[in-house]
């Protein structure tokens, strides 16, 4: 009887170790193990999908109409930690107000000889035919020095409470395609977003919240409810999935602003109309795998565009594609 009991305890203990989920973990202990695990990561690949499904509903009391808004994107990432580099490619479809745009995107981010991060971006609009490369440099930002400095920084998830972010650890394991995970989650609302910006201003010495445009955007985000979920492999302590959505947000403030704009633009003899923004889904999911550092090489055509001066700014290129 004792032998059977001992065998049962050993079997249970082994099963628990294989299972990996430890209910004694806390937000801080999990955060520390994640930092230790990430120190040995050489590279990663990731797949990101994003979806926006919304509509602007207009009514003048007798006639109702709806203008659909949608965005669907799928992107693949290769990330190298040594040397620091990133490649992204994917497609995005945007449909709004009866117009449809399909774009193919490529991005290469690599440090130059001095360590300044340089980004090469390619955009092709299959609808308008607009395409081309852009080159942007993060002047004054040495990515190698930044990565080295980050190694000396230690910030647990609980430390982010001062930044307006409170993380919670689910009491039970979560499953991601057969991988047992810890689930860490938090929510960003308009108050926590304002706290984030204020803390950032303290560090940078620039009060971005005093900017008129930033203030307008913040006012439009009243009612924001952005859910963040991190799924962390119980065996490796690395995040294998990140989920974000705004589906519990209140968008009535935006509807009010749309109504105010519609009222100011309407003629005196036109029937009064009301506008309501409805959102079915605004979400983003990213799945990540870890391994050896991938080799990331900027295409020769991007380097040629830079050398010839033909590369536009990203803002001009995207703008011309959308207008086309």
Folded structure, characterized:
With 324 residues, the protein is of the alpha+beta class. The chain is 30% helix and 41% strand. The protein is built from eight helices and twelve strands. The chain has helices spanning 2-19, 27-38, 143-151, 190-204, 212-220, 252-265, 300-308, 314-323, and strands spanning 43-59, 64-81, 84-96, 99-111, 116-125, 131-142, 168-169, 174-176, 179-189, 225-233, 239-245, 274-291. Strands 1, 2, 3, 4, 5, 6, 7, 8, 9, 10, 11 and 12 form a twelve-stranded antiparallel beta sheet that branches. Strand 8 and strand 9 (179-189) form a beta hairpin. The protein is globular, with a radius of gyration of 24 Å. The N and C termini lie far apart (80 Å). The model is unreliable at 1-19 and 317-322 (pLDDT under 50).
Write the layout of secondary structure elements.
Elements (H helix, E strand, L loop, with lengths): L1 H18 L7 H12 L4 E17 L4 E18 L2 E13 L2 E13 L4 E10 L5 E12 H9 L16 E2 L4 E3 L2 E11 H15 L7 H9 L4 E9 L5 E7 L6 H14 L8 E18 L8 H9 L5 H10 L1
Antiparallel strand pairs: 1-2, 1-12, 2-3, 3-4, 4-5, 5-6, 7-9, 8-9, 9-10, 10-11, 11-12
Q: Average pLDDT across residues?
A: 81
Major β-sheet, in short? 12 strands, antiparallel
H/E element string? Answer: HHEEEEEEHEEEHHEEHEHH
Rg, Å, rounded:
24 Å
What's the helix count? 8
Low-confidence stretches: 1-19, 317-322
Alpha-beta classification: alpha+beta
State the distance separating the first and last CA atoms: 80 Å
Shape: globular
Which percent range fits the helix content? 25-40%
- Percent of residues in beta strands? 35-45%
- The total of beta strands comes to 12
């Amino acid at each position: 009887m004792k032998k059977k009991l001992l065998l049962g305890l050993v079997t249970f203990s082994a099963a628990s170790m294989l299972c990996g989920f430890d209910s004694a973990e806390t937000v801080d202990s999990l955060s520390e193990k994640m930092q230790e695990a990430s120190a040995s990561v050489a590279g990663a690949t990731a797949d990101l999908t994003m979806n926006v499904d919304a509509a602007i509903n207009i009514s003048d009391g007798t006639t109702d109409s709806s203008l659909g808004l949608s965005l669907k994107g799928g992107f693949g990432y290769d990330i190298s930690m040594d040397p620091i580099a990133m490649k992204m490619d994917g497609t995005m479809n945007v449909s709004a107000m009866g117009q449809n745009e399909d774009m193919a995107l490529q991005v290469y981010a690599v440090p130059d000889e001095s360590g300044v991060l340089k980004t090469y971006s390619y955009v092709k609009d299959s609808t308008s035919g607009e395409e081309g490369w852009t080159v942007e440099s993060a002047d004054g930002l040495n990515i190698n020095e930044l990565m080295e400095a980050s190694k000396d920084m230690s910030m647990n998830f609980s430390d982010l409470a001062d930044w307006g972010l409170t993380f919670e650890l689910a009491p039970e394991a979560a499953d991601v395609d057969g991988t047992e995970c810890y689930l860490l989650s938090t929510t960003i609302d308009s108050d926590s977003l304002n706290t984030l910006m204020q803390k950032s201003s303290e560090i940078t010495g620039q009060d971005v919240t005093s900017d008129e445009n930033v203030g307008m955007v913040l006012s439009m985000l009243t009612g924001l409810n952005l859910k963040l979920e991190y799924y962390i492999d119980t065996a490796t302590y690395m995040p294998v999935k990140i989920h974000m959505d705004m589906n519990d947000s209140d968008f009535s403030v935006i509807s009010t602003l749309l109504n105010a704009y519609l009222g100011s633009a309407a003629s005196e003899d036109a029937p009064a109309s009301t506008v309501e923004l409805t959102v079915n889904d605004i979400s983003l999911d990213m799945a990540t795998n870890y391994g050896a550092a991938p080799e990331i090489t900027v295409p020769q055509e991007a380097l040629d565009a830079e050398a010839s001066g033909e590369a536009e700014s990203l803002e001009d290129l995207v703008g011309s594609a959308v207008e086309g």
